[in-house]
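Backbone-to-sequence.
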């Protein structure tokens, strides 16, 4: 179950959202659903999760690069982001393991 959560997203926007609104962003497994993500976060960090929103990025779209050896085609990797809202008064210390 813990392998559903790959890593936390530590961007400026995600950090500001965690400070102001108790929302934390994570990169999760593409096949994980919202209930599995909620259970994994609650077990991993010991907090109460109120809401989970998910987004899928990448789309596996083919990109072409023009190189000295000709045209190389490469697909984008598909990844999933989850934004987790934690109960009021609780927080997740993402910088603990760095």
């Amino acid at each position: 179950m813990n392998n559903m959560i790959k890593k936390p997203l530590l961007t400026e926007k995600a950090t500001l959202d965690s400070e102001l609104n108790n929302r934390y962003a994570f990169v999760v497994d593409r096949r994980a659903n919202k209930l599995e993500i909620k259970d994994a976060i609650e077990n991993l960090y010991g907090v109460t999760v109120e809401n989970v929103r998910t987004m899928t990025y990448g789309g596996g779209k083919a990109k072409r690069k023009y190189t000295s050896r000709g045209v190389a085609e490469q697909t984008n990797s598909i990844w999933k982001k989850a934004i987790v809202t934690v109960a009021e008064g609780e927080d997740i210390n993402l910088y603990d393991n760095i």
